[in-house]
Amino acid sequence: AAVAYCMNQRNGDLKYEDKLVYELAYNEYEKAKIDPGFRAKARTKQNNLKPLIPTKEDRFMNKGAKIKSPCYTNWIN
Predict the structure, then answer these.
(1) How far apart are alpha carbons 48 and 11 in whole angstroms?
(2) Mean pLDDT, to the nearest integer, of 25-41?
(3) Alpha-carbon separation of residue 54 from 2, 26, 37 (angstroms)
(4) What is the DSSP secondary structure assignment for residue 69, as one 8-state letter?
(5) Could you tell me how far CA 45 lies from the centroid of its own chain?
(6) What are the residues whose beta carbons fall under 8 Å from the beta carbon of 65, sequence distance 6 or more?
(7) Is the pLDDT of residue 12 over 90?
(8) Using a CB cutoff of 8 Å and minimum separation of 24, what contacts does 57-65 make?
(9) Which of 8, 15, 17, 23 pairs with 56 at a CA distance of 20 to 30 A?
(10) What is the pTM of this model?
(11) Which is nearest to 53 in space by CA: 10, 21, 7?
């Protein structure tokens, strides 16, 4: 939801920074899979996010890039 909101704020397409935020969510769902009650739902959420997280190519083209947009940094850090 945060990515959709921030993309809407800048009237733009998906950027590398957005993919990094999706990756943070993906990692949180990985932690949720520890709990048997949430494992299936977390796995489903991860599968939905997989196409949106950075690829090896993305990482190569954006070496060292971090989340800098105030739209994200206000609540991520």
Answers:
(1) 23
(2) 96
(3) 17, 11, 28
(4) -
(5) 11
(6) 16, 17, 20
(7) no
(8) 58/16, 58/19, 61/16, 62/16, 65/16, 65/17, 65/20
(9) 8
(10) 0.89
(11) 21
